[in-house]
Amino acid sequence: MQTLEVDLGERSYPIHIGDQLLSRGEFFREHIGGKQVAIVTNETIAPLYLDRLVDALVGVTVTPIVLPDGEAYKNWQTLNLIFDALLTARLDRKVTIIALGGGVVGDMAGFAAACYQRGVEFIQMPTTLLSQVDSSVGGKTGINHPLGKNMIGAFYQPQAVIIDTSTLSTLPPRELSAGLAEVIKYGLICDEPFLGWLEEHVQALRSLDAAVLTEAIRRSCAAKAKVVGADERESGIRAILNLGHTFGHAIETHQGYGVWLHGEAVSAGMVMALEMSCRLGWLPASDRDRAVSLLARAGLPVTPPADMTSEDFLRHMAVDKKVINGQLRLVLLKRLGEAVVTADFPREVLEATLRVDYDALLAQLGA
Ligand SMILES: NC(=O)c1ccc[n+]([C@@H]2O[C@H](COP(=O)([O-])OP(=O)(O)OC[C@H]3O[C@@H](n4cnc5c(N)ncnc54)[C@H](O)[C@@H]3O)[C@@H](O)[C@H]2O)c1
Ligand SMILES: O=C(O)C(=O)C[C@@H](O)[C@H](O)[C@H](O)COP(=O)(O)O
Ligand SMILES: [Zn+2]
């Protein structure tokens, strides 16, 4: 078992990473202040892991809250199901909410914790690769709005993140690949040597090699914890974690959520951000191509959806949390391993990037 720390002063918390932690009640008990626990999960994860977690939580009363599964349910109606269940069970403000699931469960359970009785404690127990390397760490919680992704939410930090790597054994391969998009993101934005390591180990990751997966999770969490520790509420540097997301969120919103997975949309979005970085003369085409082939080898889409026009992108990209006074800001790369957040680009370069024939680009690459 390894433990990292998210260093946020009085809101600091540990990230425990290890095998079979789900059954180790002591890791949870340490972070549970009262006698009441509510476990928020969904109908796919509950039959796999809920009983094991309930059995491990000796000495507290447990209220399971089982939500419908899917990105399309990350909304007000589903959030309200959590409040209904908390109130029906008469859980008080000493309750600890445990989010048992992927990023959808984690974002909603965290937001519910931020709101219920003006804030109760919560623990992240992420069960997808994406949630283990990204969404469980850093305190971004919230829900989608039909007009924009994650538009309603709060920064609200958990008491702890407990990552049981064995839960990945049941994860569908498509979901594993989606998680790899965010892993590759860390290499692109802040850790070029990690990118090289991923190029060597991508096949082992896709084959669920336990040691290699654990190392990828550890390095990803360390990168995220460092950025979050430097800028908890995204007033500056934290926005680099959004590489590819302005394009990717446009894809997810355009599709009405849940058609492409978040990681898939981010993968295509990162290719677009890298293409734009090339067009600005910052990144050599060979570096873009290196990233594109790694994403493709990870089983991810590297071209945007064929039916989305540049106007579609521009309309959705105008609704982005990085827009200030109507000015779009994007995360681009100065070089592999170094991202910048900038509004300093000619509009024509963005428009040209959106009009690129990505299939032709891919064909040239032979990826
Ligand atoms: N808060 C953040 O910082 C942050 C960061 C990245 C992504 N996100 C959000 O996270 C969400 C995506 O998260 P995700 O990729 O985990 O998707 P998800 O939560 O939808 O989970 C993916 C699928 O895998 C299933 N599943 C989960 N664990 C499983 C397991 N161990 N075995 C079998 N099936 C399992 C889920 O039921 C679901 O069907 C998006 O809403 C995205 O916006 C948030
Ligand atoms: O933690 C962050 O900060 C991130 O940007 C991580 C992203 O991977 C994640 O998808 C996040 O939810 C996007 O944030 P948003 O503020 O653009 O909704
Ligand atoms: Zn993301």
TrEMBL record:
Q: Which residues bind NAD(+)?
A: 69-74, 103-107, 127-128, 140, 149, 167-170
Q: Which CDD domains match?
A: DHQS (cd08195)
Q: What is its EC number?
A: 4.2.3.4
Cofactor info, note text: Binds 1 divalent metal cation per subunit. Can use either Co(2+) or Zn(2+).
**Where is Zn(2+) bound in this sequence?**
182, 245, 262
By sequence similarity, the record places it as follows: Belongs to the sugar phosphate cyclases superfamily. Dehydroquinate synthase family.
Question: Which NCBIfam families does this chain map to?
Answer: aroB (TIGR01357)
| Primary role | Catalyzes the conversion of 3-deoxy-D-arabino-heptulosonate 7-phosphate (DAHP) to dehydroquinate (DHQ).
Protein name stated in the entry: 3-dehydroquinate synthase
The gene it comes from is aroB
